Amino acid sequence: MVFDSFADGLSFFLWSTLIIAVIMGAVVNKTNFCTMGAVSDMVNMGDFGRFRAWMLAIAVAVLGVTGLEYLGMVEVNTTFPPYRNGQLVLGENILGGLLFGIGMTLASGCGNKTLIRIGGGNLKSVLVFVIIALIAWYMINPFPGSDKTLFSVLFYDWIRPLSIDFAGKQDIGSIISADNAGTVRLVAGGLIGVLLLVFIFRSADFRASRDNILSGLVVGLVILIAWYTSSNIAINADDTMYSMSNYYSEWDMLAESEEGKPVRGSAVAAQSMTFINPIGQSYGYVQSGFDKAMITFGLVSAFGVILGSLLWSLISRSFRIEWFVDMKDFFTHVVGAILMGFGGVIAMGCTIGQGITGVSTLALGSILTLLSIIFGSAMTMKIQYYKMVYEDEASFFKAFVTGLVDMKLLPESLRKLDAI
Predict the structure, then answer these.
(1) 3-class DSSP assignment, residue 383
(2) At what angle do helices 276-287 and 327-346 cross, to 10 degrees?
(3) pTM of the full predicted structure?
């Protein structure tokens, strides 16, 4: 995809992003694809249908990215965010994942589900969106009149020393064999993808569920298409081909003016779907007075998902205005939104951004984040469940330990509450 001007390339980039995001929003709404719901079904009912749909999206993305990368058709080494960064931010991946998993459980859904629910008329999710936007923006961007961010004030000094520096990149291929990373990635990605597909389609119930299959395939393909598109837009400047990122870095030499230049080069780097940072970008966009230079892949994708969900809600006549049931419901969603805002930025992604997009690069940090999100969400559900059933008898400690026993992480002899 070669364009004669940066403006034309950027326009194609953003319009194509909007189209696939609208499709994703409509399909996710139609099929009730939900990562928090997937964990809930699995933990509370032993139903793995939506969890398998999530895993199908991962399998499609992993197989697609590793295959296309081996053929030189996608670029996932220098991305935004930098999933394969040589520094494994271990503490941030685990803590951020846990906070996000707890938060999405309290707020009735992850970042993607928040956008879907807004499109369906849920005003609770509008509040969740606003809280996430404020926190996510100031976690990365300085406070007005200051050079400090929420991350630098609250986290950097104590959590960044927990990181591990690799000589090269932190993806599975580079860790196993830096000299043959491409081949190892292809083999590892193929093996992971095939094993996931075996797990997914061994279930007769899943094979019979058109919605779960459709959602997994579409979400995985959207992730893959976004990677491909963002990796393959080239600008022809004086018969020399530049990627959008390279053109941006040489802007002063290649462009005649600052007009049309994005605020940040990361806005045109190779990337795919993630939603917490883009929700934060929406606040920056409004704060800037709707400056066109602030329009990014992430911002367009978040808006597109809302739009797609809205369109399906109207077509299916499922659009419903929903507000909080009571003050407890209100405060639970507020706390959940706060935890998602912090956790999603600390972990560098959400159930989609790290759980599918990041995992598709085979980055170790993304895998750790995914596991931490699932654990945080599952444990929160266990604690809620036991405290609801046993009321005063179930202290937080008893519910927590019993939840660990239920998840086979502690021996049965340590159970504090009878299984229900």
Answers:
(1) helix
(2) 100
(3) 0.95
